[in-house]
Structures are given as C-alpha cells and as structure tokens.
Design goal:
six-stranded parallel sheet, 10 helices, Rossmann fold, elongated, Elongation Factor Tu (Ef-tu), domain 3
C-alpha cells in the first residue's frame, strides 16, 4: 500500500480509481463498509483502490477543538498500520489547512478527486461533506457525475443495537471503561501502543511485575479500572491484566497504565508494547494493605488467563 502525504508533486501509477474519502478516525464498522464497497467496485473494472483522508484532524484547523489531547482513537502511525490490512492500493493524507478548508467542493472534486487522483467511481458515507460550506455531499456528487462522467454511490449508516456506529460513540464507550462495546463497534480490538518506562517496582514486590506504559498525549485512555488485554511485544502475544489508575493503596496519585503479562519475565524497558483491550474486570480499589491487594491480583490473573490469544 502506497502512503502519500503530499500530492503537489505526486504522480499516480494508475489510470483510473475507485475512491472513498473521510476522516476515518476510528476505522470502525462504518468506515470498513466504505472500504469494502471500494474493493468490490474495483474488482469489476480493475480500478485502483484509493482512500483519501486528512492530517491533521480537520477539527483542529477549523477551531472545533483546541487540542487533541486524549481524543485520538488511533494515532497517525496506528491508522496507517490498520489501513494496511484492507488491501488498498494507496492512502492519500491530504494536509488539512485553511487553504484546503476554503476550497470549493467543485474545485476539490475537479482538481483533486478527478484530476490528480483520477477517480472514476466515488463511494461516500451518508454523513460525508467536503469543500467550503460543506457543499460536497452525495447530491452534489450525483449532479456533477453527469457532467464529468464518473460513478457515485452513498453508503447508509451502519448500526449496532439500533444506534449508528460512530467515532464519538466509540470514544464514549472507551472513556466510560466499556472496552468490550468499543471492540464491537470498531469491528476489531481497541488498542494502545506505547513505550515501556521504569516504574516504582511495587508490582514486582507483590509477585506481579508490571510494564509501565507511556502513551502519546493525543491517545485516548480508557476509564480507570482493571482490564483484561492481549499484549504484543517482539512479535509475540501474551495474556495480560492492565491497571489504569493512581494506585490508591499506595497513595501515589499519578495516573498510570501498568500491564502484567502472564508467563513473561523479561527486561523490556524502552521497548514498544501494544495492548489490545478485551474487557473491564473491576474498578480500581484501595485495599487495606499489600496482602489484600495481592489476593485480588490473583483473582484478576485468573480472569486474564482465560483470554483467547
């Protein structure tokens, strides 16, 4: 899959393309429906399979958010990695700036989608808008398709339990600790990727050595509590239990993400670690002392041991 961050001097290697466009911040079931339709359409006429998205997030440029701290479902690198799984020919990250924001829908269509990227068929989501004043919707694309000779179709909202699958709904699930619901809405496990940093060694003293995970500031965090997860490091997968919180038993008052990997005891400080969250076991609790905490950790470990890898 070709990843393009600047199309000013970009020359496509294809003659025609089926493409879809949007923010794709969660790559959830709704986004996957768009990509699958692109794949299906491309097979009919051997068009290139292209996804057009943005970096940075449009909300930052348009002033709808003052910060992305704790808001990204997936970082830029994680998004690229996820997109690699969908058998696309190219992903185009348009640099979102005020010049692009002010571009009319017609110029966006003619110069970028049809001109630069050679679209012959465009797949658009039910809520997708582009161009100045958000004028670029399905009705606009359908009207222009007769003039510029391309195909267009709109994909309906994907629903789960009667409600539309959306990135905001997934954020709410994660921030409330319902990672199992987030996984179902995403269509894949929610995960975080960080670097293992040195902690205070209290877990090791209890017989539960933990990896203290440092995340990018922009990455969303699940609610405080104890979770089951699958950890990946060095190309291997391990069952894990994860505590997100401040360790109230020891009154540390600093939010941490600490993972205990089952059947693992290696020095991994400074190494990249990924956690795929599966379920929330319980709230974070303050125990009478280390022995009471250790007994609870034994119970938590049994829950983690039952995970499918």
């Amino acid at each position: 899959m070709q990843v393009v961050h600047d199309i000013v001097d970009f020359q496509p290697t294809w003659n025609s393309a089926v493409l879809t466009l949007g923010v794709f911040d969660g790559l959830h079931r709704g986004h996957q429906a768009l990509i699958k339709r692109v794949q299906r359409r491309s097979r009919f006429r051997s068009h290139a399979r292209i996804l057009v998205t943005y970096h940075p997030h449009p909300d930052m440029v348009l002033g709808k958010r003052t910060s992305m701290q704790g808001q990204e479902l997936f970082t830029h690198d994680e998004k690229v990695e996820l997109l690699n799984q969908f058998d696309l020919d190219a992903v185009i990250f348009l640099p979102f700036n005020m010049e692009l924001a002010r571009m009319t829908a017609l110029r966006y269509l003619k110069d970028i989608l049809l001109g630069r990227l050679r679209a012959k068929h465009i797949v658009i989501g039910y809520d997708q808008r582009f161009g100045r004043g958000r004028k670029g919707d399905y009705r606009f694309l359908k009207k222009m398709s007769y003039r510029y000779d391309y195909g267009v179709e709109e994909i309906s909202a994907v629903k789960y339990r009667g409600e539309i699958v959306s990135s905001s709904r997934i954020r709410q699930a994660i921030q409330s600790g319902d990672v199992a619901l987030a996984d179902r809405l995403l269509g894949h496990d929610f995960f975080v990727t960080g670097v293992v940093s040195r902690g205070d060694q209290r877990g090791r003293q209890l017989g539960f050595p933990t990896a203290n995970l440092k995340l990018p500031d922009s990455k969303i965090r699940p609610a405080t509590g104890v979770y089951t997860a699958v950890a990946t490091i060095g190309g291997k997968r391990y069952r894990a239990m994860v505590n997100i919180g401040t360790n109230p038993t020891f009154e540390l008052n600093q939010l941490k993400i600490e993972a205990h990997l089952l059947h693992f005891n290696e020095d991994i400080y400074g190494a990249p670690l990924r956690l795929y969250f599966r379920d929330r076991i319980r709230d974070e609790e303050k125990f009478e002392g280390p022995e009471d905490l250790r007994k609870q950790l034994e119970l938590d470990r049994k829950r983690a041991a039952a995970l499918r890898l």
